[in-house]
Amino acid sequence: MTANPPAGNTEPSAQQRARTMPGQRLVNVLVRGLLRTPILCRIVGSRLITLYVVGRNSGRVYPVPVAYLRHGSDLLIGTSFGWGRNLRTGESVAIRLQGKLRPAAVRVSTTEPEVASAYAHMARVNPTFAKFNTIRISADGEPELHDLHLAWAGGARAIRLTPD
Fold first, then answer.
1. What span, in angstroms and rounded, lies between the C-alpha atoms of 15 and 155?
2. CA 77 → CA 7, 9, 37, 48, 95, distances in Å?
3. How far apart are CA 82 and CA 85, in angstroms?
4. Residue 70 belongs to some domain of the structure
5. Tag placement on the chain: N or C end, fewer CB within 10 Å?
6. How do residues 85-98 score in pLDDT, each as one tens digit?
């Protein structure tokens, strides 16, 4: 069962929830460069990796810098952007982690309970993730259930990477 939206709020579409910042392409180019640079990759790479996503139709490789959260030996990523649909559970993907290119096994979660649980965890630990994904944190430090539902309804998926 999902909570009703607060009075006066309408549910945003996927396009409204998945948004980029102005100049995002330039920022991505700069971040990818930093993640390849010795020494700097250790600093910038404490929360960011480059994920090399292969297009389903084009076969082209897209280097996507993304924020991650360590969860044991795994890396947890949340996204509602289209590139996430190119990842499949059981497949491997190349990542640049701490300056090193390596393969990682992929597990994609798309069901509401799995996505809401992963997004709640990421929102608790990383306030920037919560803000970027429009997830409000209540006074007791817990993410708002309705916001978690909206993230899932907007196409969010949780991706768990296990580096080799």
1. 9
2. 31, 27, 22, 10, 12
3. 6
4. yes
5. N
6. 999 999 999 998 88
Show the tokens assigned to 41: 């990759």
The model's pLDDT over 55-106, given as tens digits with 9 standing for 90+, comes to 989 999 998 888 899 999 999 999 998 899 999 999 999 998 888 899 999 9
Q: Which domain holds residue 151?
A: 21-163
Task: Quote the Cα angle for 77-125-50, to 5°.
Answer: 30
CATH number of domain containing 140: 2.30.110.10
| CA terminus-to-terminus distance, the chain | 38
d(CA 93, CA 95): 6
Q: What are the pLDDT digits (tens) for 14-49?
A: 444 555 566 666 666 666 676 666 666 566 656 788
Radius of gyration (C-alpha) of the chain in whole angstroms: 16
Cα–Cα distance measured from residue 110 to residue 120, given in angstroms and rounded to the nearest whole number: 14
